[in-house]
């Protein structure tokens, strides 16, 4: 089946279109959405097995040969990201079935989620820089719809910011692609990389690299471009926030990872140095936010900024260990962020507020939720043998290998403060004197717990089974270390 | 009291013009295969004709003349476009690969039939559906 790389994009697209025919029949919507995502997961697993066995898979859309048409390229990195995104979306939709109001579900919630998945999987898979922009737009438009869903006043205010920021960064994206095209005369990512090497990487390429960093940094929320994130992400309901927090910023991170290893690896003294500094500043700012706030949403949202910084520091170091660590940590962070958002979602639903002062003593009545959160918090901070540990270890090792002392130490220090910020929620929310809660019933909370626990279980398996996962991670990092693998697979020379 | 607007001229002209616009949009649609035109621009022009009708009359009249659910039209158009692209999967060809051949049709003589037309019909329906949904949603609040 030569179209295999396409299936994780095509299946949710078909499901989304099918859902558009009867937006008001909620039961059918739920079922078809779940079946569609399950199909996507199966297709991604088959694709991962195929990539593992036979190397990078490509499809030239419309049979137009490689440098001219649009290729879809599934290397191990993109397959793993597609698989993780699809699994996450499955659990989040499962959670949303119990969490969301019917009024949300009637207003195209599932359709929006499916289109979001189409855009995200497409962005991870495409091998054409302009097509990457197109898939960015697909998931952004779906996200515009999801962020205003509900139409509360705070939400509308934040969504205007969100839309404005993204419209501007999309415009910059097109401009950056145009600059790149004017220099290299091609949009095929493998071919772009080849041409930059042929041209001897003139100075203008470094300028374009910074331009791309600006564009993807806005989406990926690195310092100083993260300013819109805490406000906008606190607006939508928890399941949507979980999708945004776990997936959308990671697409920006992936794009930086891809372009900085495939295109802009010639002038590392400039571009990667800037990336490293910005990544470390993101960690610092994120830690300050996560420690300072007492609103559970905001705490976890600032943790997104920290994780983005850690991953990008790994990318900037550019050693094999650091890149493997960045891939490992990227996948870990997607899973654990989604799990944490779902868990604090239950706390918010119980307490009827997202502020820690309104919570306390939940562990007495909800021990399962409490201990699940505890494990998730440890995994977030990277306590061995949980999943955050291996990724951070590799990144720190890679950082030391480059001779940088400050970066790795800062990351290690940030882990402690991340642990503190996550434990703050545990101590104030679950310990302490129990309060009267007037939110959802205990039965309902337990129903919400199941998908969240499922995600935490995956995170644990990912950490404990790191030995089994590692060959896949290694394979994913190969084209990042040596771009010629990617180029040869796409252009078949 | 609000004066009833005198739009007799607009309404009379619209009844004729809108047909011409629709016919021209269909011409553009088919011309689009090798020359400028195609599903997107054809759909926009058809939508323009419908908007002209909407301006000259009102939403209710337009819904009686053309009782379409534009959201369903969007969905149907998307479905047609996606399935046309996915049709290539059945023949184990890359997605969006199209097929064409020349056929001898009665009256028309030798004609080129291309699966890209099906895809374009999908695009055409999506463009009309989306444009009309947007305009109706804005218009309804008044």
Automatic annotation (TrEMBL), chain A:
Residues 128-415 form the NADH:quinone oxidoreductase/Mrp antiporter transmembrane domain. GO terms for cellular component: plasma membrane. GO terms for molecular function: antiporter activity; NADH dehydrogenase (ubiquinone) activity. InterPro entries: CPA3_Na-H_Antiporter_D, NADH_UbQ_OxRdtase, ND/Mrp_TM. The chain crosses the membrane at residues 6-22, 31-49, 69-95, 107-124, 130-150, 162-184, 204-228, 240-260, 272-293, 300-323, 329-350, 371-394, 406-427, 448-473. It is a multi-pass membrane protein. It holds the Pfam family Proton_antipo_M. Keywords: Antiport, Cell membrane, Membrane, Transmembrane, Transmembrane helix, Transport. It comes from the Bacteria. GO terms for biological process: ATP synthesis coupled electron transport. Coiled coil: none annotated. It is found in: Cell membrane; Membrane. Its main location: membrane. Belongs to the CPA3 antiporters (TC 2.A.63) subunit D family. PANTHER family: NA(+)_H(+) ANTIPORTER SUBUNIT D1 (PTHR42703:SF1), NADH DEHYDROGENASE (PTHR42703). This is Na+/H+ antiporter subunit D.
TrEMBL record, chain B:
Pfam families: MnhB. Residues 9-133 form the Na+/H+ antiporter MnhB subunit-related protein domain. The chain crosses the membrane at residues 12-34, 40-58, 70-91, 111-135. It is a multi-pass membrane protein. It is found in: Cell membrane. InterPro entries: CPA3_antiporter_subunitB, MnhB. This is Na(+)/H(+) antiporter subunit B. It comes from the Bacteria. NCBIfam families: PRK12573.1 (NF009223). Keywords: Cell membrane, Membrane, Transmembrane, Transmembrane helix. One of its GO terms (cellular component) is plasma membrane. Belongs to the CPA3 antiporters (TC 2.A.63) subunit B family. Its main location: membrane.
């Amino acid at each position: 089946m030569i179209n295999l790389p396409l299936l994780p994009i095509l299946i949710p697209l078909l499901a989304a279109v099918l859902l558009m025919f009867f937006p008001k029949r909620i039961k059918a919507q739920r079922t078809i959405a779940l079946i569609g995502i399950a199909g996507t997961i199966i297709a991604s697993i088959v694709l991962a097995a195929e990539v593992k066995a036979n190397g990078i898979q490509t499809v030239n859309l419309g049979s137009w040969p490689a440098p001219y048409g649009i290729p879809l390229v599934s290397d191990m990195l993109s397959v793993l990201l597609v698989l993780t995104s699809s699994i996450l979306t499955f659990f989040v939709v499962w959670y949303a079935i119990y969490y969301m109001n019917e009024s949300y579900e009637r207003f195209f919630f599932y359709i929006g989620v499916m289109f979001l998945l189409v855009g995200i999987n497409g962005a991870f898979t495409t091998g054409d820089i302009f097509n990457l922009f197109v898939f960015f737009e697909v998931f952004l438009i779906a996200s515009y719809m999801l962020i205003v869903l509900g139409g509360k006043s705070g939400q509308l205010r934040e969504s205007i910011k969100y839309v404005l920021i993204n419209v501007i960064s999309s415009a910059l994206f097109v401009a950056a692609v145009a600059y790149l095209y004017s220099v290299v005369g091609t949009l095929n990512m493998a071919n772009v990389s080849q041409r930059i090497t042929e041209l001897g990487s003139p100075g203008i390429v470094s300028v374009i690299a910074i331009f791309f960093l600006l564009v993807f940094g806005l989406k990926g929320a690195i310092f100083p471009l993260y300013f819109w994130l805490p406000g906008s992400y606190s607006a939508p309901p928890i399941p949507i926030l979980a999708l945004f927090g776990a997936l959308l910023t990671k697409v920006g991170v992936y794009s930086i990872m891809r372009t900085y290893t495939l295109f802009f690896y010639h002038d590392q003294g400039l571009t990667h140095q800037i990336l490293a500094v910005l990544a470390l500043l993101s960690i610092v700012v994120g830690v300050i936010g996560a420690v300072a706030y007492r609103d559970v949403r905001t705490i976890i949202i600032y943790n997104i900024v920290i994780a983005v910084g850690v991953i990008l520091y790994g990318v900037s170091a550019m050693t094999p260990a650091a890149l493997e660590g960045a891939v490992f940590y990227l996948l870990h962070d997607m899973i654990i962020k989604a799990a944490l958002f779902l868990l604090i979602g239950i706390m918010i639903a119980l307490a009827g507020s997202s502020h820690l002062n309104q919570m306390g003593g939940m562990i007495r009545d909800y021990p399962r939720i409490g201990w699940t959160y505890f494990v998730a918090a440890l995994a977030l901070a990277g306590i061995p043998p949980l999943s955050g540990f291996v990724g951070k270890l590799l990144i720190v090792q890679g950082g030391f290998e480059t001779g940088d002392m400050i970066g790795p130490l800062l990351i290690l220090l940030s882990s402690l403060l991340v642990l503190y910020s996550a434990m703050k929620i545990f101590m104030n929310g679950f310990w302490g004197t129990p309060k009267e809660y007037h939110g959802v019933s205990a039965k309902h909370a337990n129903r919400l717990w199941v998908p969240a626990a499922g995600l935490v279980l995956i995170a644990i398996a990912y950490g404990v089974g790191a030995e089994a996962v590692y060959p896949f991670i290694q394979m994913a990092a190969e084209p990042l270390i040596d771009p010629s693998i990617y180029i040869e697979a796409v252009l078949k020379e | 009291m609000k004066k009833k607007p005198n739009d007799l001229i607009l309404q009379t002209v619209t009844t004729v013009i809108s047909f011409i616009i629709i016919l021209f949009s269909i011409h553009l649609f088919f011309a689009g295969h090798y020359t400028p035109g195609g599903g997107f621009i054809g759909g926009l022009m058809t939508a323009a004709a419908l908007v002209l009708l909407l301006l000259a009359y009102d939403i209710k009249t337009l819904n009686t003349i053309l009782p379409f659910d534009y959201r369903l039209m969007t969905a149907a158009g998307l479905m047609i476009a996606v399935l046309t692209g996915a049709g290539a999967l059945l023949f184990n060809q890359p997605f969006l690969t199209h097929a064409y051949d020349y056929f001898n049709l009665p009256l028309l003589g030798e004609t080129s039939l291309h699966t890209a037309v099906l895809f374009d019909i999908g695009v055409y329906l999506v463009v009309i559906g989306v444009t009309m949904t947007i305009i109706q949603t804005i218009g309804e609040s008044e």
